[in-house]
Amino acid sequence: MEKGKFIRYLRGDSVGDSLSFGLKKVILGIVLVVILSFTLSTFIIAEKEKIEYSKRESENVLRTLSSNIATDMERYAELSRLIMTEDRLVNFLRADARSVDISMINDARYGVMDILNVTEGVDTVMVFREDMIMLITNRFTYRFDYDLMQADDWRTDIYAGKGKAVISLNSNNIAFKADNRPMVTIGRAIYDIDTQKRTGLMLMNVSAGIFDKMLGQLRYNDICILGEDGTFLAGNRDYAEYFSAFSDKKEVFHKKVFVNKRRALLSGCSVGNLPIMIVRVSPMGVKGIPFRVMCVLLFLLIVSVGLAVFTGSFIRKNITDPVFKLSELMEKNRQSGQLLKIDAKMPNSEFMMLEGDYNNMIDHVNELIDRLMEKEKILQKAEMRVLQEQIKPHFLYNSLETIGFMALEAGADNVHDAVETLGSFYRNFLSKGGREIPLSTEVRIVKDYLSLQKLRYGEILEDEYDIEEGTEKLIVPKLILQPLVENSIYHGIRLKGEKGIIKIKSFLEEKNLHIIVRDTGVGMSQEDIKRILSTDSEHRKSDDSESFGLWGTIERIRFYCGRDDVVQIRSEIGEYTEIEILIPAEISGSKV
Fold it and tell me: Is 503 within the bounds of a domain?
């Protein structure tokens, strides 16, 4: 990132990437969501409150009206009970059929009408003897179905009442008003007070006009009173069309409807056990949310917005600003070209921990750099020692070749072979200055070196090779086996004073190259092994020659593989020493 862009980023000018700008957007989004939620919640609550208010109001109206209607019907039922005890009517019902004449019927009618004169709302009273001789108080305003009257079906529910009031409509369909006005009928079976024998039945028709009068007194103009069969009785006739949706309802019920394209609440209920239904249609939305509820909602809105602003300010002060400050100090550190610690005053322990972790990382990186530089110096020193051991190649090769010809002419074949072996050793040893060679070349160097050592030590030294097929072409660091073999001779087999064997073995395991150098020398103590394998060079070294011969080789192998666990030493005092080298597959195999 360029300096100018970085500074703009720190200041929050980089709109796309700035945490500060993102935080502002989040806070603004929270505020908008809160306001939107408040508005939506207020609307939903207001709508719900309006509906609930309309429901409560309708329920109160319906229950009040239902109670009034039930009370009036009970009053008319008591009136019908009084009529049944009128003396002239009782005589009419008890008289023998042969003695019943028109005068007796008229006397009974007058007796009934005397009782009806003290009340209003009763349109007519019909009394039927068991032999179906009938008297009626308002005969000429009705039409009669005589065929149905002779049947028993219309009397079944009345007889089943055993003298109790049975409420029905329109005279149980045996008689109808000439003007088709609806009637509420109270039917009773009549029993003789002395013998308890049924003597007839009575139908008392109550005019539906009493309901209109009731609605007028209560000032209800949005009510429709219907019979259980949908017959219009009183109130607003326009609402009779809603009967079909609620004819099976017994409790108070509600339904949303549209009246003249305006929302309204349709409510209804049955009047107790009476065959009467009440339907009310009231507009919704006449009442809103109570003022106290609005105050609470507004208070919650203000608190929510305040909390959002406070949260944004807190996050900016305690998170984004410290992040920008740390980033700015890190950038200055980078531009200085040095890995230095930073020192900044942080507002909380978490960022102090982050600052401490960064400083610890700087210390660790500096330590790694120092160790890497130390390893590089050790490697360069080792390579310099190798170079110091070398002589001018062409002069050496020419000199050895001249000495070989002279020995051959003088008949010294052994000297000629030794010189030729020495020449082969140095050709492989120098390897054109390369750091890496195939394992086969490294083994060739060891063989030439041991051939020269056998000229000196004779039969005391034997060598064996177990090179697994496929490993000879794998690449290894140059001159890693010869120093180990040399160490085996001078610090192992020679000190033991008896014939020794040096064995070199290679194999692949899990695609990693394993090389083992084993000698039957005096062995090593665990303290010596621990000292040689130590990564502390000062603790590891004993003298310059040993350092170059063994630990220098180990260090070069570790540096080459980039790991410290690639060399293992196993030994038993007086028996053997075994050094195993492991070169990872990605290093050796990639160079095949």
Answer: yes
Residue 266 forms part of a structural domain? no
Token pair belonging to 138: 């308002």
| Residue 49 exposure: Cα atoms within 13 Å on the Cβ side | 14
Taken as a whole, the chain contains a residue count of 592
Residue 204: DSSP 8-state: E
Query: Phi-psi region for residue 337, left (φ > 0), alpha (ψ -120 to 50) or beta?
Result: left
Rounded Cα–Cα distance for residues 427 and 430 (Å): 6
Counts for the chain of helices (H) and strands (E), in that order: 20, 19
CA geometry: angle 307, 311, 314, nearest 5 deg: 135
> What is the residue type of 219?
R
CA distance 340 to 362: 7
The region that residue 32 occupies, defined by phi over 0 for left and psi between -120 and 50 for alpha, beta otherwise, is alpha
Which has the closest alpha carbon to 184: 163, 162, 166? Answer: 166
Q: Beta strands of 4-94 (E only): which ranges?
A: none
Q: Which residues contact 233 (CB under 8 A, 6 or more apart)?
A: 182, 184, 208, 211, 225, 226, 227, 276
In tens digits, what is the pLDDT along the chain, a chain of 592 residues?
A: 444 444 444 444 444 456 667 767 777 888 788 788 878 877 777 777 778 888 888 889 989 999 999 999 999 999 999 999 999 999 999 998 888 899 999 999 999 999 988 888 899 999 999 988 999 998 888 999 988 988 888 999 999 999 899 999 999 999 999 888 999 999 999 999 888 899 999 999 999 989 999 998 888 888 999 988 888 999 999 888 888 776 566 678 888 888 888 888 889 888 888 999 999 998 876 555 565 666 777 777 788 778 777 777 777 777 777 777 777 777 777 777 677 777 777 766 677 777 777 778 888 888 888 878 877 777 666 666 555 454 445 445 555 556 655 666 666 666 666 666 666 666 665 555 567 889 998 998 888 888 888 877 777 889 999 999 989 999 998 888 988 998 998 899 988 888 899 999 999 998 889 999 999 999 999 998 998 888 765 555 444 445 456 888 888 888 888 888 899 999 999 999 999 999 987 887 644 3
Structure tokens at 177: 């008003």
Express the helix, strand and coil content of the chain in percent, nearest 5 each: 55, 20, 25
Domain boundaries, position 549 = 459-591
User: What CATH code is carried by the domain that includes residue 554?
Assistant: 3.30.565.10
Cβ(560)–Cβ(588) under 8 Å? no
Residue 64 lies in a domain: no
Quote the distance between the C-alpha of residue 509 and its chain's center: 47
Question: Could you tell me the two tokens for 390?
Answer: 């070398």
Alpha-carbon span 79 to 186, nearest angstrom: 10
Q: Is residue 490 part of a domain?
A: yes
What total number of domains does the chain contain? 1
Other C-beta atoms closer than 10 Å to the C-beta of 368 total 10
For CA atoms 472, 474, 478, 481, the dihedral sign is: negative
> Which residue is listed with tokens 């899990």?
510
**Residue 126 near residue 135 (C-beta atoms within 8 A):** yes
